[in-house]
Amino acid sequence: MNIPNFLSVLRIVLVPVIIIFLLQEMYLEALVTFGIAGLTDVLDGVIARAFNRQTTVGAFIDPLADKLLLSSMYITLAIIGLIPSWLTVLVISRDFIITLGILVLYMMSVKYEMKPAFISKVTTVLQIATILFALLYQFIGHLISYKWVEIFFWITAAFTIASGFTYITKGIKYLNRASSTT
């Protein structure tokens, strides 16, 4: 196992640790551990590209670790009331729809490019930032109005929806292109 793959596995292992911290209302520990998990995500990509350590296993396990981390965080934070449940449903539904679309394309033997759209990258950053702000609010809530946190929820929701529609549109184009060549 190379270092980038190890970092992805570490990110998966940290997920239950973060959830336990959250359920025990140990928000600082959860925030720090989430930060470490985020750092493993940055490092695995940098190391894999810089030292040509990209592997087939890594191409599978890295996005799996990302989805597991984000989904688990959104579900747990919604359960304990730090993130609205409607936002969690949007985030999880978008990922489910994208995964289902990829599965349909694969099952229909449609060739497609697995390159993330720019809006998807922005969406991921906003989703991560939303988690960070929700956790930070537990410490500095007295310094800022909750209205700012709510505005951030809505911005994240808008980008999540727009990103989902971008992928749905791409998937339909792939399907149309494939059906016109048969």
Topology:
Elements: H1 3-23, H2 27-50, H3 56-79, H4 85-107, H5 118-140, H6 146-180
Helix pairs in contact: 1-2, 1-3, 2-5, 3-4, 3-5, 4-6, 5-6
In summary, what is this structure?
With 182 residues, this protein is an all-alpha fold. It has helices at 3-23, 27-50, 56-79, 85-107, 118-140, 146-180.
Explain this structure.
With 182 residues, this protein is mainly alpha-helical. The chain has two domains: 1-80, no CATH class; 82-182. The chain has six helices and no strands. It is globular and about 60 Å long. The mean pLDDT is 90.
The helix-strand sequence is: HHHHHH
User: Averaging pLDDT over every residue, what do you get?
Assistant: 90
CA-atom Rg in angstroms? 18 Å
User: Runs with pLDDT <50, length 5+?
Assistant: none
Q: How would the global form be characterised?
A: globular
> How many helices?
6
Helix percentage: over 70%
Query: Which structural class is indicated by helix and strand composition?
Result: mainly alpha
The profile of the biggest β sheet is:
none
Provide tags for this entry.
6 helices; 182 residues; mainly alpha; 82% helix; single chain
